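In line with agreed milestones, the collection of sequences with tokenised folds has grown. One record among many is set out beneath this paragraph:
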Amino acid sequence: ITAFDGLIVETADDLTLKGQVPTGGTERLLVEVTGDQVSMNVGGSVVADTTVSIKAYTDSSTLAINAERDIAFDGVIEGATDGDKFTSIVMSADRNLTSEGVITGDVVAIKSGQNELSGFGDITITDPARITVDQSLSFLAGGAKGDILLRGGVYTVLDAAGEMSFTALNGSVGSVAYTMPDSTVAVPSLAAHGLIVQAGKSVDLQHLDIDVLIDAELTQAGNIVIMDKDDLVVNSVRLTDGELNITAGGALTVSEATALGNSDRNDISLMIAATGGGSGQVAPSETLTYGNITTGVTGSGGVLNLSKNDSTDLGFTEVNITNQVSLADANAAASIA
């Protein structure tokens, strides 16, 4: 299907895009939808398998896929030629959204649980998913209840100032290694200049390659884990009641980190990981710098751990400061070389 201008698909029921095997054939046909302003508004669910390709007809095309139930997208979204692209892609489900597809555009927004009455819906992206954007990539899960889980896959924001954001106000956010049905392990890769995270229950973002953690907030009891491959600057992290673990593969600078709970589990751990593995593992030489750190709102608050290695005891430097309400200006310039 090719539309040189707008293409609108509307149905009160489900929309299934799937190539069929023709009579006498052995392989399924491809389903290709090409247009400038493409909009799909579906009263049921959207299912698009690997035979589906949605292509931008111009260099400023837009795409919106809205479903009042679920979205399962495993196809490809890209430009029809090298110069064509979708400047805006919005994929929004009122319930759950899953994908193993390939998506390319300037600005991409992926949403679940968008029904105003219920607000329930998860986002689950699974390898071999590939999402590549120029400016920004955002994930928004259901406001009443919804998790965001990246099970393998590659997620890349190309612009030097590009951002990736996750919002799960009453759920968890995670990027984890995932064992595929064939027993291979898919490891996710997330690359962007800036990262913003807001969640309710937990944050476990590993396999990151970001420059700046602009803001991370956990509004309910739970833990935050951030693991970055290289240098990392952390502007602000806040936990209501839980443990914070930040690991960088290079220099780590933390301007502000706050764990507001009053129990012993409100620990903050800032670590520069060792490089290599096994007997070849070496302690890093980068610098760990921290600013305003709050480990609890009472004297029974948590512990601040600063270290320059991982769990293998290879001569790392560690500082433990216990029962501190705040480590503020007096330590703003402190560092472990």
In short: The first strand starts at residue 6 and ends at 11. Residues 124 and 199 are 16 Å apart (CA to CA).
